[in-house]
């Protein structure tokens, strides 16, 4: 049973851009298909290309056909969605031009939602433009895409400018990982199951691994990516958000204020990485020519648009520590990279060894229990544990066995929604729980800036790794120096 969301005027700035076409319009279509959009909600596409409404509708229909699975395409849904569309020609850099929005946006009848799917440098002028035509007041909401700045200082500037026009309660900073079903499931796993909540600290857990491996390279985004690198592009936001959800204390309620407060405490407790420990706690890598599967792929420096001698990292591994009571002595190993052998995003919780081994005759070292949370693909949760191998032999033989809960199989009647569907739904409902508070963004930057400053001081080039490998060998040493291994090496 579904109920519709509040009536909204959903204004999509940058509607002809990549994100809007590939992710946002398909997500809006899915919300319409599920009956979640109120009948009088308007979807207002904004771009600087002159276009009749009919041509815009054709564009949207083609986009949906391209990016939505054909089994989910439905003509009735499409017609309903087309009936909600409006198009607005507007050069966002022209502060005088925003008046045109007031012809379609009616903040007395519906909640205005302004989605900034544009280059971040336009964010301040869009805010000014909206203010110039009185569209910033409550109940208006703004949705900001990442990256939010390049470092702490620039993100503060952006946040300051936004705060000048909007109250924090109106601001929705997107981190699409927070909309993934499996990331949301972390809350259920941790706080609805006593077997985990009572074993979730340094007394039971040896260490935690978070891996976000991608097969893709920079995919034509060289100029953006070369300025950012994997640390800013993936760790500052997605990995630190996942880490916060794994490490936070139980929030007293499932609401934005409590969840965000607890995540913030984790970010504040991250031990700084500085010049004194950057060489033992981090590894940077850059892919060279290689093969991903059967496909030959160019190295980073041979990608289209590449600049010679770039030292931007496409891989990073970090040993992080959270200096608080719960996590004392438990390292969090983070690892993310482009052009890795497979797409795999997962969290591995490795439990402590038993204090005494009564099975040493058959098994001198008892393998650790593991909880593996597969964020994507093949979403699911598995527990690796030891069982007796059936048989009458004198010595008891043990084997590691896996309890595997695959979401696809277990919830076969439930479609796994794309992260953007969930997040757009939450914005329309006015729920900020899955969005990032200004303080979180700034504390995450503070930790990241310190690593970047330390890298700059050491002035070392990133270590090369072959496309299609699991990163530089130094990443293996990073964890091996502690007598541990990455999960894929076992
Ligand atoms: N693409 C993705 O997967 C992701 C994107 N993001 C973020 O989302 C935002 C959008 O990214 P993306 O869609 O890839 O970028 P694109 O460059 O593909 O799209 C940006 C859109 O903004 C429009 N635009 C630029 N300047 C103006 C202007 N003065 N007036 C009106 N429209 C303008 C562009 O129009 P025109 O074509 O006329 O220049 C373009 O359609 C960025 O902040 C990005 O960092 C975040 C995560 C993932
Ligand atoms: O935000 C980003 O995320 C994608 C990875 O997202 P995923 O949902 O496919 O895991 C990454 O490729 C991109 O570089 C980054 O900007």
From TrEMBL:
GO biological process terms, alphabetically, are: glucose metabolic process; pentose-phosphate shunt, oxidative branch
> So where does NADP(+) get bound?
48, 91-92, 146
Report which reactions are catalysed by this protein. Answer: D-glucose 6-phosphate + NADP(+) = 6-phospho-D-glucono-1,5-lactone + NADPH + H(+)
InterPro entries, per the entry:
G6P_DH, G6P_DH_AS, G6P_DH_C, G6P_DH_NAD-bd, NAD(P)-bd_dom_sf
Which major enzyme category is it?
oxidoreductase
> In Gene Ontology terms, what is one molecular function of this protein?
NADP binding
The reply to whether NADP figures as a keyword in the UniProt entry is yes
Binding-site positions, substrate: 176, 180, 214, 233, 338, 343
Q: Which domain of life is it from?
A: Bacteria
Q: What is its EC number?
A: 1.1.1.49
A cellular component term from Gene Ontology for this protein is: cytosol
**UniProt pathway annotation:** Carbohydrate degradation; pentose phosphate pathway; D-ribulose 5-phosphate from D-glucose 6-phosphate (oxidative stage): step 1/3
**Where are the catalytic residues?**
238
The UniProt record lists the Glucose-6-phosphate dehydrogenase C-terminal domain at 187-486
Is Oxidoreductase there in the keyword field?
yes
Alphabetized, the UniProt keywords read: Carbohydrate metabolism, Glucose metabolism, NADP, Oxidoreductase
Cite the Glucose-6-phosphate dehydrogenase NAD-binding domain residue spans from the record. 11-185
Query: Entry's NCBIfam families?
Result: PRK12853.1-3 (NF009492), zwf (TIGR00871)
Instruction: Report the family membership.
Output: Belongs to the glucose-6-phosphate dehydrogenase family.
General function of this protein: Catalyzes the oxidation of glucose 6-phosphate to 6-phosphogluconolactone.
PANTHER family to which the protein is assigned, alphabetical = GLUCOSE-6-PHOSPHATE 1-DEHYDROGENASE, GLUCOSE-6-PHOSPHATE 1-DEHYDROGENASE G6PD
The entry's protein name is Glucose-6-phosphate 1-dehydrogenase
* Organism of derivation: Pseudidiomarina taiwanensis
């Amino acid at each position: 049973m579904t109920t519709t969301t509040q009536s909204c005027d959903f204004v999509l700035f940058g509607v002809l851009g990549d994100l809007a076409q590939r992710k946002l319009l398909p997500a809006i279509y899915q919300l319409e298909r599920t009956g979640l959009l109120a009948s009088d909600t308007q979807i207002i596409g904004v771009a600087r290309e002159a276009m009749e409404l009919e041509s815009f509708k054709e564009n949207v229909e083609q986009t949906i056909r391209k990016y939505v699975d054909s089994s989910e395409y439905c003509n009735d849904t499409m017609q309903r969605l087309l009936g909600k569309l409006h198009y607005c020609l507007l050069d966002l850099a022209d502060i005088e031009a925003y008046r045109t929005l007031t012809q379609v946006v009616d903040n007395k009848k519906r909640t205005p939602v302004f989605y900034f799917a544009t280059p971040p440098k336009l964010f301040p002028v869009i805010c000014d433009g909206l203010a110039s035509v009185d569209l910033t007041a409550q109940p208006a909401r703004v949705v900001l895409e990442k990256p939010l700045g390049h470092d702490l200082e620039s993100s503060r500037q952006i946040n300051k400018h936004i705060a000048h026009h909007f109250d924090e309660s109106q601001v929705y900073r997107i981190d699409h990982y927070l909309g993934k079903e499996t990331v949301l499931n972390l809350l259920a796993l941790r706080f609805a199951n006593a077997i985990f909540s009572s074993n979730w600290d340094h007394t039971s857990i040896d260490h935690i691994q978070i891996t976000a491996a991608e097969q893709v390279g920079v995919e034509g985004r060289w100029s953006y990516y070369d300025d950012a690198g994997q640390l800013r592009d993936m760790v500052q936001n997605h990995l630190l958000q996942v880490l916060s959800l794994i490490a936070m204390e139980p929030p007293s309620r499932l609401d934005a204020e409590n969840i965000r407060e607890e995540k913030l405490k984790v970010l504040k407790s991250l031990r700084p990485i500085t010049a004194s420990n950057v060489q033992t706690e981090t590894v940077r890598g850059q892919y060279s020519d290689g093969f991903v599967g059967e496909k030959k792929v160019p190295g980073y420096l041979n990608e289209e648009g590449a600049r010679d001698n770039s030292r931007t990292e496409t891989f990073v591994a970090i040993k992080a520590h959270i200096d608080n009571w719960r996590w004392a002595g438990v390292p969090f190993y983070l690892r993310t990279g482009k052009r890795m052998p497979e797409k795999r995003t997962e969290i591995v919780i490795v439990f402590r060894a038993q204090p005494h081994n009564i099975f040493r005759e058959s098994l001198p070292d008892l393998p650790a229990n593991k909880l593996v949370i597969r964020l994507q693909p093949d979403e699911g949760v598995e527990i690796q544990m030891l069982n007796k191998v059936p048989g009458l032999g004198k010595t008891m033989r043990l084997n590691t066995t896996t309890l595997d809960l695959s979401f696809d199989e277990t919830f076969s009647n439930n479609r796994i929604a794309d992260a953007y569907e969930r997040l757009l739904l939450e914005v329309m409902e006015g729920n900020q729980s899955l969005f990032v508070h200004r303080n979180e963004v700034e504390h995450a930057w503070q930790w990241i800036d310190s690593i970047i400053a330390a890298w700059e001081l050491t002035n070392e080039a990133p270590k090369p790794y072959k496309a299609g490998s699991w990163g530089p060998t130094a990443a293996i040493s990073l964890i091996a120096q502690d007598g541990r291994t990455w999960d894929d090496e076992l």
